[in-house]
Design goal:
Radius of gyration: 14 Å
Structural class: mainly alpha
Shape: flat
Number of strands: 0
Helix content: 40-55%
Order of helices and strands: HH
Length: 68
């Protein structure tokens, strides 16, 4: 599967939410795709919040390393 590290820096939380709610093919030349899950709106929002939080931690870590 594709790496998701840094993904939250490339897309908005709104885009992530909409994509998880309705998975579509983004790269037809790849033989893999994101699975679809039957998540509630609340579950989807929590997952998006988690991805955003991890992205912030990764960005903060990288900024600290580059500043040193």
């Amino acid at each position: 599967p594709p790496r998701l590290a840094g993904q939250s820096a490339r897309v908005t939380a709104q885009w992530t939410y909409e994509y998880i709610r309705d998975v579509s093919t983004l790269r037809p030349w790849l033989k893999v795709r994101m699975p679809s899950y039957n998540l509630s709106d609340e579950q989807t929002a929590l997952l998006v919040e988690y991805f955003a939080g991890v992205g912030r931690e990764q960005s903060d870590w990288l900024a600290a390393k580059l500043a040193a």
